[in-house]
Amino acid sequence: MEQQVTTRGVGLQYGVIAGVVMIIYGLVLQLTGLVFESWASWINYIFLAVIIFLAHKKFKEDGDGFLSFGQGLGVGFWISLVGGVISSVFSFIYITFVDPSFIETMMEKARYDMEEQGMADAQIDQAMAMTENFLNPGMMFVFGIVGVLFFGFILSLIVSAITKKTDPQLEV
């Protein structure tokens, strides 16, 4: 008996792949010193879009050859959720135990960037106080998952619009 392909099954499988890719890419950024470059963080989303695309392809190959728009979103949701949780757990462990100075370095970079933009000292101090509330391992964990889910949803909308293949027998 052949097992039916589900959006959750494919999404979980490719979500693990996405999580591992995000971890490896994050480590590469750390080792190369590019971790604080804003352009470098956006490349993660290119990886995520490619993984969603490959998962859609796998869903169609292992299933009946079709993928509805909703199924595409479902696959993308599971990939984003699993990938976001895996990469956020790794980041939490890394920031908490491996490199506790990471947050301090982020704060210094943020202050430097604001000074370069010509912000007044009072504005910088106010912004830094607010930033400090959100730069802790717990909040970064939550924002990591929410961020990947948000961008994963946007990417899933785009990729699903491209990869959908509706079964003509189901069309009215």
Q: What do these coordinates show?
A:
This protein has 172 residues and is mostly helical. The chain has six helices and no strands. It has helices at 7-32, 38-62, 69-98, 102-116, 121-134, 137-163. Helix 2 crosses helix 3 (69-98) and helix 2 (38-62) crosses helix 6 (137-163). The mean pLDDT is 93.
> For the terminal residues, how far apart are their CA atoms?
30 Å
Broad structural category: mainly alpha
Main β-sheet: number of strands, strand sense, barrel status? none
Shape: elongated
Mean pLDDT: 93
Rg, rounded, reads 20 Å
Which series of helices and strands comes N to C? HHHHHH
Helical residue percent? over 70%
Number of strands: 0
Number of helices: 6
Beta-strand percentage? under 5%
| Uncertain regions spanning at least 5 consecutive residues | none
Which helices and strands occur, and which strands form pairs?
Blueprint: H1 7-32, H2 38-62, H3 69-98, H4 102-116, H5 121-134, H6 137-163
In short:
The chain has six helices and no strands.
Features:
mainly alpha, 172 residues, 6 helices
